[in-house]
Amino acid sequence: MTGELLIVPESEDVALLEEAHRLVEVLDDQVGDTPSVVAVAFDGVVQPAAVRAGSPDEVVHVVREEGTFTAGAAGVRPRSEALADLAADARAVLLPDTADGTDLAAATARRLRGGCVTDCLLRVREGELLAGRTAYGGRAYAEISFERGPPVVTLNTEALGTPSAPPTGAPAERTVEVDVETDERVRHVETFEVPESDLAKARRIVAGGFGLGTPDGFDLVTELADALGAAVGASRPPSDEGWVPYDRQIGVTGKEIDVELYVPVAISGDSYHMRSVNAEFLIPINTDPEARIFNFADVGIVGDVYEYGPALVEALREAAVGDDSGGEAAEEVAE
Fold first, then answer.
1. What is the DSSP track for 178-203?
2. pLDDT tens profile 229-261
3. Is the pTM of this model over 0.70?
4. What is the 3 state secondary structure string of 231-294?
5. Rounded CA gap, 69 and 49, in Å?
């Protein structure tokens, strides 16, 4: 198979480019194949100078006939259209495993009618690129091959390798002008503050699903999380709807969690969500007694969270006050 390795960095982080050079070394050792490493810099998102430090063979500066590209959901459609044109004959397309990188990878793979694997590492087996990633909460490891189209993958930039011989020399540069339209479907873009810690490090999580019916439902989810000393998460639909920031999303296209307590509220429990959930105790709240989420429950609450949630929050807070009072009383006795 021929074609270059197409790298799409989001910043001056050169980890993706170093990994690409490492893959070229392995391909050369196994089958004598040495594809070029080409860095793509979308005008307005990453400047060409930022990716030169990774010593790609070539930097492609992609500019629009009118305006610039933008990062984030509003900019995925025009970037994926331009990237798909560039990647038609590529050996593989590599992006960082971030929310934006994942969205861009999925949209590009769809245009290429090819495969997309997120949060993976690339392996070389007899000259073929395979995507390796953990499954079932880290209890299994899978290697995925691609039947057609260039593989489009997102890689964890904290777990990548480096080439044994760092590349040298200045990369060639060229500018490609494209005529792509802005995504008119995006009417409103809002930036949310993210005051909470990383979900991947949380020990307790209360998450809301689309079954809440409205973004206001997350006020109740937040109250319940506060009462439990937990972080707030969500399934994918609320994230896609903009009810919560993308970094709150749990699932295959979001965060993988490993917690002592998980309380999914109005979440059905489909496989794309549950594949990324590893919980010591799982206590769902859902109005549908047949919801798949109850198959994973230690204890489940069948009911409307709007009816039972406030009472549960009050009970948890009273219990917490009771514990605090008990502790003070114990200290007084000790004195």
1. E-----TT-----PPP--SPPGGG-S
2. 899 999 999 988 889 988 899 988 788 898 999
3. no
4. EEEECHHHHHCCCCCHHHEECCCCECEEEEEEEEECCCCCHHHHCCEEEEEECCEECCCCCHHH
5. 17
